[in-house]
Amino acid sequence: MNSPRRHSRELALKALYQAEINNSDNIESLNQIIKDSFFPPVIEAVVKEFLKNTKADEILSGKVEEFIPDFVDSISANPHEKLFDLRFRVKQILENYFSGVTINESFTPELDNLINNLSAKIKKHSAVEDFAKEIIENITKNNSFIEETIEKTANNWSMSRMANIDRCILKIAVCEFFFFPLIPVKATINEAIELAKKYSTDRSYEFVNGILDKISKENKFIKNTKSKNDLEKESNS
Q: CA 30, CA 44: separation in Å to the nearest integer?
């Protein structure tokens, strides 16, 4: 099972890759991915569990198949609403499909449970989103420095000659080296290797590992002096 930070790195990687392919803005690319493919599965799982357990006659006899995609799209469009606003929007969507269900007093516990589950799941996944945004924002702000660092180390390999996915993985790792002092260097390199194994070609992880190892040694990074347990907690949180 992927750790939250690995999930964040995967989001950042997909955003960088998509931005390169489409010649678009990194941050806009990430926001689009979050809206289209990050939160929808989370919200869909919550609403399907709710529908599986509901005892409301209005819902059991209603147009459930049409309700699910509309509900997912609507909540995914703005998942970070305040609880009051989220409740209002959930009730609005339910009423659109199952008229009268939200004024049925016996349905109130089910409605509360749905909203609380949605809020908890969104909050949990927001940490993944936030770290991905930190990575993308730092890469965007420091792109020239990051690319120069990679090119200087990768003998005979300009950025343009590298495979797109490898280039994006290296950018994330080098960004972590210089702008995320609480993340151990070894953890960054290991995560980059795993990304290369999962998303790139068979031998790409060796290329990525070689460049990152050289950069880390040349710069002699002095990270924080926290305990091993603290560092592991930071890396996996």
A: 20
Mean pLDDT by runs of 10 across the 237 residues of the chain is 87 96 95 93 97 95 93 93 94 96 95 96 94 97 95 79 93 97 95 96 92 91 48 47
In three-state form (DSSP H/G/I as H, E/B as E, the rest C), the secondary structure along the chain is CCCHHHHHHHHHHHHHHHHHHHCCCHHHHHHHHHHHHHHHHHHHHHHHHHHHHCCCHHHHCCCHHHHHHHHHHHHHHCCCCCHHHHHHHHHHHHHHHCCCHHHCHHHHHHHHHHHHHHHHHHHHHHHHHHHHHHHHHHHHHCHHHHHHHHHHHCCCCCHHHCCHHHHHHHHHHHHHHHHCCCCCHHHHHHHHHHHHHHHCCCCHHHHHHHHHHHHHHHHCCCCCCCCHHHHHHHHHC
The answer to whether 10 and 18 have CB atoms below 8 angstroms apart is no
Residue that has been written with the tokens 């409301």 in this structure: 56
Cα separation of the two ends of the chain: 13
Among candidates 85, 98, 89, 93, which has minimal Cα distance to 54? 98
By the 8 A CB rule, do 13 and 199 touch? yes
86 near 115, Cβ under 8 Å?
A: yes
